[in-house]
């Protein structure tokens, strides 16, 4: 419909926007309930990830040097590549988990009005899901890195299968959520008219 017709009333005195709002009340309510449920579940997952990763960062594996006064509290494994990967992945996981948590809390505290479903809420959901997936991948990378320097050298090669199995459920979950992700990208950023 051309935009100039949006403001014209029909024979009952209703504009196109009023008709749309009235006929889509149930859809807005269902969408709001789904968004609240999804955001709540993702917030719980993010809180668990942030707690686990924060704990692993602050109580890093290996001991610290307590003999030298200038290096008290510094980890002994600081120069180790696997340890550095562990610390970096833990930091990335924690940061993206907090970002995702903030996005889902922003969704939960929003008004969730009809106009919000056009771009505001889908953008927050898209950003929250992206951050959640990055956080999960970084957490698994952190786990694998910490596991590498904790294992003996002769067993390091045999753990590749374990890492593949560890990443498999996350990959399956991401693949299952991919259609939703694509729909969110299309609805939010692709406008053919």
TrEMBL record:
Domain PGG as annotated: residue spans: 33-148
Stated name of the protein: PGG domain-containing protein
UniProt key word Iron: no
A GO term from the CC aspect: membrane
Keywords: Membrane, Transmembrane, Transmembrane helix
Segments passing through the bilayer: 86-108, 129-149, 161-182
Coiled coil: none
Organism per entry: Ficus carica (Common fig)
């Amino acid at each position: 419909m051309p935009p100039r017709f949006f403001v014209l009333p029909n024979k009952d005195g209703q504009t196109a926007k009023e008709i749309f709002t009235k006929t889509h009340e149930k859809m807005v309510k269902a969408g709001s309930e789904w968004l609240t449920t999804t955001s709540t579940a993702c917030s719980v997952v993010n809180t668990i990830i942030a707690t686990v990763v924060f704990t692993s960062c602050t109580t890093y594996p290996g001991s610290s040097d307590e003999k030298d006064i200038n290096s008290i509290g510094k980890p002994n494994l600081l120069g180790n590549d696997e340890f550095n990967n562990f610390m970096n992945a833990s930091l990335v996981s924690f940061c993206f988990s907090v970002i995702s948590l903030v996005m889902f809390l922003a969704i939960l505290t929003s008004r969730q009005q009809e106009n919000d479903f056009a771009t505001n809420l889908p953008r927050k959901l898209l950003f929250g899901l992206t951050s959640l997936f990055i956080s999960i991948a970084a957490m698994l990378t952190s786990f694998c890195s910490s596991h590498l320097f904790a294992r003996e050298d002769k067993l390091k090669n045999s753990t590749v299968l374990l890492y593949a199995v560890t990443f498999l459920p996350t990959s399956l979950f991401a693949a299952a959520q991919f259609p939703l992700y694509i729909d969110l990208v299309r609805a939010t950023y692709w406008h053919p008219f």
